[in-house]
Write a structure and sequence with these properties.
By secondary structure, the chain is an alpha+beta fold. The protein is built from eight helices and ten strands. Strand 1 and strand 2 form a beta hairpin.
């Protein structure tokens, strides 16, 4: 919806929409949901006006969280977001309270046989990326927000598919979480926020250590 609102509903001329469609298909989103989102973004489903709103807050252990929403009812959205925070060990904060801890970044994730430095390094750096990390068969590409289109086009032209492609917020400093209970509370809050219909993304600055994540995974 955001991609369509910003640059139109024609994927041929809207690289952000093409990337969003690829991500949606990779996540097995039903075709009717994709079509409905495009129509909403283009204003073809009535006179409903959607606005983008960002909320900031704190989670367990003082973790910083930014919740980006797209809504046609601001009162409903803030009520739902506040309730999710309060019922899961967090609280909403004033605008600007935590946003300074994050940088807006273009973010791409490549998995599988193309997730290697040999295939990606020169390609994405020439397109304007400023960071590439590869670990366990997953490559993460980061760049300035205004580099999104060039990086996306370079990957697309090379026939490299992304499992994620968006402009997100990257924390400059992280809160290391070494306790299983604290990690579970943080993840539960993130899950509850992401379940809300109006929430588009949740960015947070926790870094759960691998041993703790292994314990949590073993419990599920």
């Amino acid at each position: 919806m955001v991609a369509v609102k910003q640059s139109g509903k024609d994927p041929a001329s809207n690289v952000k929409l093409r990337m969003a469609l690829a991500s949606a298909k990779a996540a097995n989103m039903p075709r009717e949901n994709i079509d409905r989102a495009i129509k909403k973004g283009a204003g073809e489903l009535g006179n409903v006006v959607y606005e983008e709103i960002t909320y900031e807050g704190y989670g367990p252990a003082g973790t910083a969280m930014i919740v980006e929403c797209l809504t046609d009812n601001r009162n409903r959205t803030i009520s739902d977001v506040r309730m999710a925070f309060e019922r899961n060990g967090g609280n909403l904060a004033a605008s600007g309270a935590v946003s300074w801890m994050f940088q807006r970044k273009s973010h791409f994730v490549v998995e599988g046989e193309n997730a290697t430095e040999d295939k990606l390094m020169d390609l994405v750096l020439d397109a304007g990326a400023d960071d590439l990390t590869v670990e366990d068969g997953v490559a993460e590409i980061w760049g300035a927000p205004d580099a999104f289109t060039e990086i996306a086009k370079a990957l697309e032209d090379a026939g490299i598919e992304c499992s994620e492609a968006n402009i997100t917020r990257r924390p400059e400093n992280v809160v290391e979480v070494k306790d299983v209970s604290t990690a579970q509370h943080i993840l539960r809050l993130i899950d509850r926020l992401e379940e809300l219909d109006d929430v588009q993304s949740v960015n947070s600055n926790e870094e759960i250590v691998p041993e703790v994540m292994e314990q949590i995974d073993a419990m599920e």
